[in-house]
């Protein structure tokens, strides 16, 4: 395995199926462009006359669209920006925090990352979409699923305030799990 000598940018992108590492190599003399997602080569272009431009590829189980923009700043300096679904990474992550809840927990020595997609009520755990069962309860809804032999439940309860909307709480083995900030 050749050493990544032209590595110019590394990003971490948190999606429902996990946190993905995107690495970008740019040979500013040869114009070489290589994109790695989670260590796997996605794109390789050896010779490019145009040193600026963009590379588009997909990330994760849901094949989320990602684009690396290569812009000349001055002389031989370049700027690399990552867009996810057409939004800057920062904007995408801000929006994502409104549409998803994420919890990180350890059960029996194994780490789990549980993500709730609020618009679809899909639940992901360590990259797998979970089988869930939803039920209406007195004060809201409960979405039940299992992680190993642990029963889990995401409770959705109205905050009573319009601006806050619905509050989602993950309960595992009768214990409330604090939400993670990504």
From TrEMBL:
What is the protein named? Fas apoptotic inhibitory molecule 1
Query: Which BP terms does GO give this entry?
Result: apoptotic process; negative regulation of extrinsic apoptotic signaling pathway via death domain receptors
One Gene Ontology term, aspect cellular component = cytoplasm
Family, per entry: Belongs to the FAIM1 family.
Name the residues that span the membrane. none
Q: Which UniProt keywords apply?
A: Apoptosis, Cytoplasm
State the function annotated in the UniProt record: Plays a role as an inducible effector molecule that mediates Fas resistance produced by surface Ig engagement in B cells.
Compartments reported by the entry: Cytoplasm
Q: Name one Pfam family in it.
A: FAIM1
Q: Which Gene3D superfamilies match?
A: 2.40.128.180
Q: What is its main location?
A: cytoplasm
Stored InterPro entries = FAIM1 (IPR010695), FAIM1_dom_sf (IPR038513)
